[in-house]
Write a structure and sequence with these properties.
The structure is a homodimer of 169-residue chains. With 169 residues, chain A is mostly helical. Chain A contains 6 helices and 2 strands.
């Protein structure tokens, strides 16, 4: 009568990473067609003190990697945040997807009650159980950055619709 | 070793509706301080064919109401989409919160396997089980509109941070 922590994380992240990849493909095609230097879109942001597109994608990918990996008590691969092109972002998304799909679903069992410590050793340290960590921290953070990526591209005239954001469900 | 459909819906929607309410309060204060007519923010959008702020809030609230209500097999209250002011939006959020908090958690049991039909009788009709409906349709849709509301306000210079988006978790 319930759902698993695995079902509430890996398939959700995978669906949205796939749609993010498609959205970025359309953005790259748009830049090519309109003779827009790719950097214009890659460095676009909605306000001067918000992150640019590349950073939004990196952070979205990192939440997928970090949340799924921690729930499975897996070591987290380190990625360098050195992406500069659309192709680099596709690679980042692909390796993130490969990592989370490599996680053993059985390892997520019981993670809803496991203690997770955010920002350990800092003044902002916060302890959560795995359920709250996933549902009320990880998913909101992840969706924030995926949606902001979409919003940046829409604001810059890339032709996208909600269907592109949602992906296959 | 699992989580309930209730835990993956009502508390998540409630947290984000609370943060949405706070974000809109800050937006209204910003308009007052800067002598900006409230309509400028309420009608702001990121691109001409995207929804304006008011509509983003209405849709976010409707996903919270509709997804939680359908999972609980509850009748859905109809709201009119006639909001025109920040106060109206606060009322819409408050009644949405009151509705979802009135739902009986026990009624969500088994909803993960129940069939949900999206857009019934239309060419886009789609059948999902409750688990997919919540995790891979309802939550992404809800977060899309909450995040886009935040993005519109940030783009218009309202001083907000990720903490405002996240709310209390």
């Amino acid at each position: 009568m319930t759902i698993s922590m695995y079902a509430a994380s890996v398939p959700v992240f995978t669906q949205m990473l796939d749609s993010l990849s498609e959205v970025l493909k359309k953005a790259e095609e748009h830049a090519t067609e309109k003779n827009i230097a790719p950097e214009i879109l890659l460095q676009a942001r909605l306000f001067p003190d918000m992150f640019a597109l590349i950073r939004q994608v990196q952070i979205a990918a990192d939440f997928a990697k970090g949340v799924a990996g921690r729930l499975a008590e897996n070591e987290l691969p380190a990625y360098e945040d050195n992406e500069q092109t659309f192709a680099d972002l596709q690679t980042r998304i692909a390796k993130t997807k490969a990592f989370i799909s490599s996680l053993d679903a059985a390892k997520f069992a019981g993670s809803e009650e496991r203690e997770i410590i955010l920002r350990p050793g800092t003044p902002k340290e916060k302890k959560l159980n795995g359920q709250t960590y996933l549902l009320q921290y990880g998913l909101p953070q992840f969706f924030f950055h995926v949606t902001t990526t979409y919003a940046i591209l829409r604001h810059n005239g890339v032709v996208l619709g909600k269907k592109d954001f949602m992906g296959a469900y």
